[in-house]
Amino acid sequence: MSEFQRLRCRVAFHALQFRSEIQTLGRQMVERLRAWGQPFLSYHPGLVRDTLAYHGCAELFQDVHTELIQYRRAQMIRQGIISDELNVDSHLQRENGSCPLMPEEVGLLLRAMGYPSKTIIYLAGSQTFGGQRLLIPLRAMFANLVDRTSLCSKTELSDLVGPETPLPSDIFQLPRPKSESEIKEEWSRAGPRPRPLPPPPERRIYPHEKEGWYGWITETDKEPNPSPRDLRMQAHRLLWDALDYIISVEADAFFPGFNNDGSGWPDFSGLVMGQRLYERASSRTYRPDRKTIAALFDITRGNMYHPKHDWTLSVKEHLNKSLSEEGLIRQSLLSKPNSFLSHPLPECSCTISSLKLTKQTEGKDGRVLYGDEHECPIWMQSAEAVGVRNDDVESAEDDNDVVEQQERNGPDFTTSLTSMIDHDEEWDPND
């Protein structure tokens, strides 16, 4: 059985690969982030319309976005996806940890953790429901907030998409104005006198209100079917998510705005956290408890930008615990029932015979959550030993090359090197 599980792990984390063009561009984006000379953090907001509608988080938004979330929630109820009511208390859902953390809250958490304002934050995710308006507070706190459009040119992104057939232009046209005769005819058919004044003319719909994926809500109560342009944009978002996935896995730190959405399928943040845990278990991956975070923000809701010192210490303590073994165990309890991809421990890990086995940690149902790693196969341990020996041989060869180079350079090289050392000792500030 263990061999079948190892096969699942190799398929999930090794065999399944992105296209070579996606991997190449993703590595280039990582190199451009590294070229800034400082670590960078990847942040995925998790603000997706379907997720917000599923958990009833409409009241956290304003204006048209609340209507769009409620419309999608009504669709899910008719389709049998949701068995709950249409109108729910979004603030109660937020206190229960069922709603994503807003970008402003994430910025305050990172600032409480001591991240400077010059920290490079990569914004992952092909779409953020609510638009750029929600990111304004985060950009005000961290000016180096970048995304794929900041790291790639339009040519690089279009080359990744490939050639596409042109779509017909969707040009907005105003309705035809009524003629004077048509207006008089409607007035004559209005009924017997005395009659009330005619209603005021309909409000004109301007082009900037019609443009965008939400433009239909200004004209009708029913969402139209996706247009060819919308379907093409959905296909493009899969490519952007693939690029963001590569960068999030390679980031120095990762902060999820929302994971474990309860849908039964691993979400973007969950997959990234599982991949980072599989490749580098010691990587800095935050696993915040949204219920605890909501309670902390309720304490300082009226003074979020100037919190008390005790509040900052509480945030640091919670987020540091999420990085430790306690956070791993909690993540296992939430993610393991859905898919091992979000938490591939202990299924996709093993220990060598020379290491001391960790203590097993079991859940309430008796299932092992942490520390039940099997011993690695003999071929894996032997391959690792061979790799260590090869490294020792290469290092010894490098030392021999240095000695040979010094012998070829003769005594002049040794004299110059000695004078440089003497010069450094002469100007040693510790003397």
Automatic annotation (TrEMBL):
Compositionally biased tracts (Basic and acidic residues): 177-188
Metabolic or biological pathway, per its Swiss-Prot or TrEMBL entry: Glycan metabolism
One Pfam family linked to the record: O-FucT
UniProt keyword annotation of Glycosyltransferase present: yes
InterPro entries: GDP-Fuc_O-FucTrfase
Membrane topology: Single-pass type II membrane protein
Region (Disordered): 168-204, 388-431
Recorded GO MF terms: glycosyltransferase activity
GO cellular component annotations of the record: chloroplast; Golgi apparatus; membrane
Subcellular location: Membrane
Biological processes annotated in GO: fucose metabolic process
Biased composition (Acidic residues): 393-404
Keyword entries, A-Z: Carbohydrate metabolism, Fucose metabolism, Glycoprotein, Glycosyltransferase, Membrane, Signal-anchor, Transferase, Transmembrane, Transmembrane helix
Entries under PANTHER family matching the protein: OS02G0726500 PROTEIN-RELATED, PROTEIN EMBRYO SAC DEVELOPMENT ARREST 30
Family per similarity comment: Belongs to the glycosyltransferase GT106 family.
This protein's name: O-fucosyltransferase family protein
